[in-house]
Design brief:
By secondary structure, this protein is mostly helical. The protein is elongated.
């Protein structure tokens, strides 16, 4: 196994943590992607999940099929944001 011998530390191990980007207008990117600003995410999924689906509900435990579709939309939005920043391919 080869151990990296040269790399750059981007923080100085502050006890309060590290911050990437000073404000929402500053562009960032990871793994060679083009830096971009923080996206506006306004998706608000209201989801009710039941432990055991009641009669007439879909098998995944969501109250309605509309809630399932809403959850899938939220997941797609998360995937889009992660892809935009280079954290998901």
């Amino acid at each position: 196994m080869t151990i990296a011998t040269s790399y750059e530390q981007v923080t100085y191990n502050s006890p309060d943590g590290a911050q990437i980007g000073v404000n929402s207008c500053e562009k960032i990117g990871f793994f060679g992607t083009t830096p971009t600003t923080r996206p506006d995410v306004t998706y608000n999924a209201t989801i009710t999940v039941t432990a055991v689906p009641a009669a007439g509900t879909i098998a995944f435990g969501f109250g309605t099929s509309a809630e399932f579709i809403s959850a899938m939309g939220a997941i797609k939005d998360i995937q889009h944001v992660l892809t935009r920043f280079g954290l998901w391919e």
